Amino acid sequence: MRIAVLADVHGNLPALEAVLDEVARVGVDRIVLLGDIANGPMPGQTLDRLAELGDTAVWVHGNGERELVAGFDGQAVPGPAGEEAAACAQLLEPRHRALLADLPMTVSLEVDGLGPVLFCHATPRRDDEFVLVDSPIQRWDEALAGVTEQIVVCGHTHMPFDRLVNQRRVINPGSVGMAYGPAGAYWALLDDHVQLRRTPYDPEAAAKRIARSRYPDAAGWAAEYVLHPYGDGAALEAFTAIAMKG
């Protein structure tokens, strides 16, 4: 079993296409979609492309999927996430909602050479919990309480890492569509070992394509997250403040 892990695409279709092209070249048995797939400027096109993967794709829900389904159904979503959900909902069709509804929070797969691996978006207990690469061991132990798998793969914080937590290995593939740090689309390849990978793509061409979408201020989104992405230091500082609030 060889698995590609794609997290936090955030509706950035050009970045997704670049990663899928590379995934096709290296060859995999499964592609695990680790949540926050479509909440971004090209949500419908992103979901349509991923639907083409058929049974190769294994879907896990993140906070973005929960919020998009709520927005599509006309339910209130608090905070800035509600504005994004409402904007994306206008660009989705019922078939897209069907792809996002009732997805599992966690999936466990046997990976040759690694054994059983648990996949989740943020943590196994919450789809929006911030636990970071430098979070204390106690915080990680609390978030992973009851997990029997010795390897856990999670996303949500958009920064790749591979670390040990009390003899358990925790891996974050980084973000495909909204990377914090050096430019590119980040993902992970799992077989008998773990590769954290970065696929380059043309930010100028991607930004122009995103700007032509019907997402509100799509050009602004592309400028902020594709042309001038936040550094990992700034993101870590912001997320640490959120994590400290629980």
From TrEMBL:
<feature type="domain" description="Calcineurin-like phosphoesterase">
    <location>
        <begin position="1"/>
        <end position="190"/>
    </location>
</feature>
<dbReference type="InterPro" id="IPR029052">
    <property type="entry name" value="Metallo-depent_PP-like"/>
</dbReference>
<comment type="similarity">
    <text>Belongs to the metallophosphoesterase superfamily. YfcE family.</text>
</comment>
<dbReference type="GO" id="GO:0005737">
    <property type="term" value="C:cytoplasm"/>
</dbReference>
<dbReference type="InterPro" id="IPR024654">
    <property type="entry name" value="Calcineurin-like_PHP_lpxH"/>
</dbReference>
<dbReference type="GO" id="GO:0016791">
    <property type="term" value="F:phosphatase activity"/>
</dbReference>
<dbReference type="Pfam" id="PF12850">
    <property type="entry name" value="Metallophos_2"/>
</dbReference>
<dbReference type="InterPro" id="IPR011152">
    <property type="entry name" value="Pesterase_MJ0912"/>
</dbReference>
<dbReference type="InterPro" id="IPR050126">
    <property type="entry name" value="Ap4A_hydrolase"/>
</dbReference>
<protein>
    <submittedName>
        <fullName>Phosphoesterase</fullName>
    </submittedName>
</protein>
